[in-house]
Amino acid sequence: MTETAHPRTAPLRARAEIDLAAVRANVRALRAHAPTAALMAVVKSDAYGHGAVQCARAAREAGATWLGTATPEEALALRAAGLPGRVMCWLWTPGGPWAEAIEADIDVSVSGMWALREAVAAAEAVGTRARVQLKADTGLGRAGCQPADWAELVAAALAAEARGLITVTGLWSHFACADEPGHPSIQAQLALFREMVAYAEEQGVRPEVRHIANSPATLTLPESHFDLVRTGIAVYGISPSPELGTPADFGLRPVMTLSASLALVKHVPAGHGVSYGHHYVTPGETTLGLVPVGYADGVPRHASGTGPVLVGGKWRTVAGRVAMDQFVVDLGGDEPEPGAPAVLFGPGDGGEPTAEDWARAAGTIAYEIVTRIGTRVPRVYVKVKEEQGG
Q1: Domain ranges, residue 360
Q2: Which end of the chain is more exposed for a tag (fewer CB within 10 A), N or C?
Q3: Which CATH number do you get for residue 57?
Q4: Is 276 among the catalytic positions?
């Protein structure tokens, strides 16, 4: 990923400005929502497109005591960047880098017997205890051990622990519908998690942390906080669900502002087709602005004809189809200079659209909007150092 620590004076084709002060403020706000639990900042998928190493450092500065990733490669990259402290990863496949993760003191998640066997074998090979967390499938139906198989997994983990090969550091699970308040699965999963934790502890497991709360549960379900909350999208200032509230409702601020420099402004007559397929035809004589980002940069093609953009202080809409490298906006006769900024989304307090606005336009969720911004778009980090008292 292209990156720089400070804004450049020369305009870029496009830029994703990442406000690290907002990351720190969001982590502090989330800690206030779960004051009795430790906080994990999830930085998987390059911190949801924001830059894993930079955001991890900012989150640590604000009091996140754990970092979370999906893949072991992501976790190992954090260690390679010099990030200390607890790091956990959970998306393993057979033959994964167990030994490297164990040697790097990374907590590895185990959902079934094959994974436990591979973790134990790697620990034995390198001569280092593996830090293992057992994941329970309490109803999400993805990773995690089914209740019917839990006793076997717990017994095998305790046997490996007795041999000095692993330490069971955590028991955890993940909600399916925490972003839908009142959904019956929430309380059902919470009850089953308590049962599976109680069983493991009765058998002799002594976990450092028990955790099930993701961002929406951290914000709305205090009884789910246990010892640790895992906050992902909320760290980046995006509400996990519009139904739960806006970012401001939870004291959060969006971290990413995506903008581009207009590549061309031109006059066209009425009836002029715009972009592939001519799905937009100018209703009258007008001006068109060419925005030099497209679906190769992560701008969703599904937002063709609907995506909002701030140009010259006014909201414009994508005219016609989003192409691979560019799209067009109808400027309605306005004539901004080439190079003028086109702001696709940001916090919204400057009048610009937000990632949630783009999610609605594309029929998706704001998670996808920020995470999909591609590596062709430089991340420009601002407020890298924390101001005194800030």
Answers
A1: 256-382
A2: C
A3: 3.20.20.10
A4: yes
